Amino acid sequence: MTARTASLWQIRQPSVIPGFGLALGVTLSWLTLIILIPLSGLVWRSSALGWTTFWELATDQRTVNALRISFGTAFLAALINVVFGVILAWVLVRYRFPGKRVIDAMVDLPFALPTAVAGIALTTLYAPNGWIGSLLTPLGIKVAFTPLGIVFALVFVGLPFVVRTVQPIMEEIDKEVEEAAATLGANRLQTIRRVLLPGLSPAVLTGFALAFARGVGEYGSVIFIAGNLPYVSEIAPLLIVIRLEEFNYPAATAIAAVMLVISFAMLLIINMIQAWSRRRYGYGA
Amino acid sequence: MAHDGTASPAGSGNTELVRVATSEHRLARYGLIAAALTFVALFLVLPLAAVFTEAMRNGPGEFLTVLSDPETFAAIRLTLLVAGIAVPLNLVFGIAAAWAIAKFEFKGKAFLTTLIDLPFSVSPVISGLVFVLLFGSHSLLGPWLQSHGIQILFAVPGIVLATVFVTFPFVARELIPLMQEQGTSDEEAALSLGASGWQTFWHVTLPNIKWGLLYGVLLCNARAMGEFGAVSVVSGHIRGLTNTMPLQVEILYNEYNFVAAFAVATLLALLALVTLVLKSLLEMKYSAQIAASRRH
Amino acid sequence: MEVRVQNIRKEFGRFPALNDVSLDIRSGELIALLGPSGSGKTTLLRLIAGLESPTEGTVYFGNEDASRKTVQERNIGFVFQHYALFRHMTVLDNVSFGLTIRPAGRRPPKADIRKRALELLDLVQLSGLEKRYPAQLSGGQRQRVALARAMAVEPNVLLLDEPFGALDAQVRKELRRWLREIHDRTGHTTVFVTHDQDEALELADRVVVMSKGQIEQIGTPDEIYDTPNSPFVFGFIGQSNILPVRVENGQLWLEDRSIGVSAPGEADGPAQLYFRPHDIELLDGGGCIAGIVVQTRRVAGTRHVELDIGTANTKVEIELPPEKATSDRSRLAFRPTRWKLFRD
Fold this sequence. Notes:
- The structure holds 3 protein chains of 3 kinds.
- Chain A has 14 helices and no strands.
- Chain A is mostly helical.
- Chain C is built from 9 helices and 20 strands.
- In chain C, a hairpin with a 2-residue loop joins strand 9 (206-211) and strand 10 (214-219).
- The radius of gyration of chain C is 25 Å and the shape is elongated.
């Protein structure tokens, strides 16, 4: 009887390993101090605005445009990354070619290179007089200082998310499955389209979501290349910074709150899709 | 079996009577490799090359002059200081969190793990904003801080806080899966032999996780030194005082002092390259001792 | 369909996996490739399928040279050791796959594909599970889905790689009998690879024993068991005793004693005598092999008796009816009734 009540009230299962209290104590205090209190400050400040004010601020045309640009370009960039990220992962997993090791290591460059450096480098490269920009200008394609520039910066930032999510799953593909498709008469394209890609789709979806989430919030690499024209190429994080510089804290808070809500909702949906996939097919990513 | 279908494009495929069933046509292989390499060149290699060429545009002389500028020097010092504080703090936190989560079963564990990952899904700008809202002059704490002469925003403490926020999950995320994989039997063995809790940690757990720990610290440090958005919001951009290297890059660039901007950027790019090389070395040599999930 | 393998040689790098292998598989036959790991049996199966291509030699399907055909063109059914089911497809979609991917001209209408797949699922006793995903099935059920999927394309030949390798002993036995029934009902020419002699001997019409990239013997299960034609087959299949003997004037000698076995026409000289533990008769004396009982074990309906025959520390095992009581250290004399001599 007592044992039963004890187990009901116990937070953790018994273990001989010491240090649970200390470790969890440090974790929770640090988490609360650094993450939870500051974030709840944001929640508190935005709820203090009142619904009407909040709605007015959130539906301000410039804000709406900035959010649309942030989410739209991040979506497009994540799509591009899915296509090239899957190709890149495939090439790295399946083929041998000189310099493969270096390329594999290079994929992580966007993780390691500070975003500001990436921003000025991409701008220099894709500006009308830059190495690549000067080749594109005669074709009438303008990258830097347009929304397209934002997409390019976000492609850079998001690439490793897709590759590094898909790559380990590709490495685990059972060769027998491909052979099975071939013995049933499927040509290579049919095998890839109908067998391999559907099998990779949970990983691809996760990679897409990670790249997308990162792209929506990205600031450093974008502001140099975007041109930052209000209503046209101004991203939401930049608008937060601008509002802060104007000491317009309510507006900054409102934009941040909207971004957070949309991002969390997306993560939730992705998690649900993953859980569903795991239940059904016995695998997720 | 020895049916290695990785068949290199230049490989022995053409001596076979029929093509290996699990490989693409040679032209398709070349095409895919070409597409991947072009993409890598356009988005990764050329930007990196641009940093170095732009910095050297006016020769190494000017490059060195820029780097010996006192403001640049102050930025380097501040960056090192901030990383020097933020990384050890998150290192301690990471080990504590991984110990609690990997070695014990308790209620709310999954939720705790989600909370630790939270900073990854928050825009860096918002990571800075939350501290402005907390410590700014119009906030609850603001007036109190002001009356006691404590400066957090637009000063080093704010920059450290924002950096800690942004780099919060790195070490924990690397250690948790690794320690979960290793289980608790080693620790139980040490304890049964009479070792104390701390002895067990120092002599058993730490040696088991050291390479994974180093890996996490490496990534944490790269982000700490390179963080831009969050730091930008809380720093106030006071030259020589609250400018980290990435902020210095921005200021120089916006002043059209491109060579100087790229010179400072070169240092950060070198940091990135060193990080990548160390990271690859760790992955190559100690792959077993680095967590299976290498996602960020 | 009849399948002929002619002088096949296969090398992986420098390593020869198959060396001059020829095999005729009759139409409608159920044939087992039996051998230890590394004997080349799986390689041979994959060569027939077209999953590997031979370094030298030819594979004929009927009278047609199939060597230059791709695996897709050969129209075979292959069941993989770990089933290789498509895990994002339902059972029904897995079975229908081979038909749905056919080019429009050769593709049956949707309703026909569905009907055929359901029929096959009925044949493999999986009716009602067509909407499940592979992850929701047991090992034995997955195995049967894999078989149905392979049969859906009306294959020229059905190839199975260690079809029961990944299953529990119990399920294994059931499926073995069941596979034989399916074969008898559908009549597909079937080749399966196994390292399990019981499986091969119980299931197959003919067994191909392989070792080190070569075929050691081809024959019915009875032929393989009763008249093994090489020391390898003797040793690999069933239990056997090996004694170093000498032939003198058509008589076998173990050291300085005649063992009462005559081998007319055998040349004089040393040889190895192979015989099975149950192919013996007990004697009271005369020309025989005699030894002291070291150990006895009762295994189901027989008594296994281990004898020390005093020669070069050789131990011999014989099988006796259980009612034949023997005590340790007692003396027994016997003579092999069915045996074979091999020379080095």
